[in-house]
Amino acid sequence: MGSSFGQLFRITTWGESHGGGVGVVIDGCPPRIELSEADIQRELNRRRPGQSAIVTPRDEADRCQILSGVFEGRTLGTPISILVMNKDARPEAYADMKSTYRPSHADFTYEAKYGIRNWQGGGRASARETIGRVAAGAVAQKVLARLSPGFEVMAYVTHVYDLAAAIDPALVTREKVEGNAIRCPDEKAVEKMIAAIEEARADGDSLGGVIECVARGVPAGLGEPVFDKLEADLAKAMLSLPASKGFEIGSGFASTRMRGSEHNDAFEIRDGKVGTVTNRSGGVQGGISNGENILFRVAFKPTSTIARDQKTVTASGEETTLAARGRHDPCVLPRAVPIVEAMAALVLCDHALRQKAISDFGLRISDS
Asked: Which of 231, 211, 223, 168 shows the shortest CA–CA distance to 337?
């Protein structure tokens, strides 16, 4: 059950880091949506390793293959299965970690839960699992474009370690985000961020930071009271990502330092529709989208694998020292950007289909 996500638009990811391959099965995708492997590959290329000097050098093209659910360039309405083969797996590099728990990794907890674990690169707990999420997210974005013309989801890096960028979410463009290796639209902050990551790598260390995401063109009405509130599902989606440690939407924790008179979003009529003058709610009120931009942030910890000796223990209870040898990102942020976008698209697509079901049912009742 833990490998599936969503209600009407439901995905199940599968595979391990150094197994034969990874992938996803998507169930609930509407029929007659134009979809090609190129649509999916475009997003996978943004996530793949080896794309710049500040990410892991693992050499994977991550070429996707659609195995089912698509015929003559359109979805059939049946389950879509997508496969990506692992080409540059090196399980032998992890042989000395077979009985040793890597600090801050899932080695111990997986063994505590299942009594067995795949010690080759983290197995199922590896961020390589997110390939399936990104592939499914690409499909979700195609569906959302059909349901809500003008829909756009865009994530970008705002913080690396103690470095902060100055970014106006309303002005961010895809070109600015993709114009540099760190995926930060603030040109003045980019060089400092890259330098900090390179310095951490040279020291055998790693850095964390924050990714912000804005979703535009989201209609009012998405979200299900009480437990499936839109921000609750977004929070679950983001906190299910490897290395994520925090989530906030709209004003987030800053709202605790404001009064209600400062924080409330006043309503106005804009272009003939109800809107808000400010957007401290982050586009969600009462768990339901209000038609404003959805805006949230995700905090990511420093990469757990570092090229330094670390104290740990073995499965037999012996104290030991571990030196990492794998190929890992000194900072997960650049490659996490498309993953955040994918998870946001999956949540919004699922809720858009749920809302469409309610609306269509209401129309049928009123016409009867």
From this structure: 211
